[in-house]
Amino acid sequence: MNHDRSRDLYDRALSVLAGGVNSSVRASMPYPFFAERGDGAHLVDADGNRYVDYVMGYGPLLFGHDLPDPVTAAIQQHASQGPMYGAPTEIEVELAEFVTRHVPSVEMLRFVNSGTEATVSAVRLARGYTGRDKIVVMQGGYHGAQESTLVEAGEDPYHTHPSSPGIPESFAEHTIAVPFNDEEAVTEVFSEHGEEIAAVLTEPILGNTGIVHPVDGYHRTLRDLCDEHGSLLVFDEVITGFRVGGLQCAQGEFGITPDLTTFGKIIGGGFPVGAVGGRAEVVEHFTPAGSVFQSGTFSGHPVTMAAGYETLKYAAEHDVYDHVNALGDELRAGIRDICEEHAPEYTVVGTDSMFKTIFTREAPEAFEGHCEAGCTQRETCPRYDICPKNSADVNAAATDRWERVFWQEMKERGIWLTANQFESQFVSYAHTEEDVERTLEAYKEAL
Ligand SMILES: *Cc1c(COP(=O)(O)O)cnc(C)c1O
């Protein structure tokens, strides 16, 4: 594969963009390829190389790169009528009505412009609503580039530190970071600080940390603790929303009703978006109905709203989730079989249309009875005691090998995966059986 043009473009970019990119995750080693165009499930780079794309914009592209006709038509119509107004439009009501019809916990919404803005607004809302300052997050959970959640914790969940320069130490004082899937740790935090906790904020499935599935009962424990102590449970469904569990989202799949949910990615049909939804009584605390300030020039942008609405409507009326989930199962089961033979210590993770392989270091004694298509923390699985339960377990895996060896080899074989061990990969409606077969062939050679 020739990458001359991408290398030249990156050379130019390094002079005028910090690190040559506009989102840090894009700067893969030694330099990223520049995208020229999409074609179904494939991406063509600036040098004309073609890849089967499982990055899918890091989550938003449910259909792959070719949008269904009604989605394209709605985008073009709204763009050509004048891009935005500063006055409300019918299309934002349509999308809000659609979401409230399908997502169990959502009665009312506020649209914003990114997943980050959604989680920032949700945390402010939870604090404003409860009159409390502390929030509980999961170690290694990701909620965007926001000050309250960019924290690291050691052994002691109370002594968190900002994970980036530029965030005052004092901000982290209000954030308690517990290990995911550890019922004891979060129960203890509530018994010591329950009256000060505004909210627990968690992804239903850790989607930015290798993909970690909850153990049975974990979310129920979080729900009960929040109820007992008057705290809000906030599900960050920016990745899982309208992907895991289809239109009901992960909360429907797990049967847990959060007080607030944050959305992003798919809900904007490929355009910048975020949203906070939940019980009307809570969401109405946002200005102007209530007093928790929230506002945005581009919020509810008509082109985004149209893309999001037509995307979800199309998914409701076609076999989109059946297709992506079936191919997801095929990929996970296929990679599992390859691992059994070539790398029994590795853990295949993911559900629905999300998949990843964590390069864990310990093999189970037996392979029989192994989770069929992605780790679901099934207690009877022979891997149960060694499969990753939290971000520390994922960090302990051979993460360098992914980035420096495996990912590069897959790329050379024309399969574009996420460039580090932590980010999820996605199957789109445009992927085919043939793509999956090619991908498994490449895994077999590269693993
Ligand atoms: C992507 C993501 C975010 C941040 O969304 P942006 O649109 O990148 O700001 C927040 N939470 C989760 C779970 C995400 O996956």
UniProtKB/TrEMBL annotation:
Keyword Lipid biosynthesis: no
InterPro entries: 4pyrrol_synth_GluAld_NH2Trfase (IPR004639), Aminotrans_3 (IPR005814), Aminotrans_3_PPA_site (IPR049704), PyrdxlP-dep_Trfase (IPR015424), PyrdxlP-dep_Trfase_major (IPR015421), PyrdxlP-dep_Trfase_small (IPR015422)
GO BP terms in the entry: protoporphyrinogen IX biosynthetic process
Pathway: Porphyrin-containing compound metabolism; protoporphyrin-IX biosynthesis; 5-aminolevulinate from L-glutamyl-tRNA(Glu): step 2/2
GO molecular function: glutamate-1-semialdehyde 2,1-aminomutase activity; pyridoxal phosphate binding; transaminase activity
Cellular component, GO, one term: cytoplasm
Residue positions, PTM N6-(pyridoxal phosphate)lysine: K265
Enzyme nomenclature, EC number: 5.4.3.8
UniProt keyword Cytoplasm, yes or no: yes
Coiled coil location: none
Subcellular location(s) per record: Cytoplasm
Record family assignment: Belongs to the class-III pyridoxal-phosphate-dependent aminotransferase family. HemL subfamily.
HAMAP family, per database record: HemL_aminotrans_3 (MF_00375)
Name this polypeptide is given: Glutamate-1-semialdehyde 2,1-aminomutase
Protein source organism: Halorarum halophilum
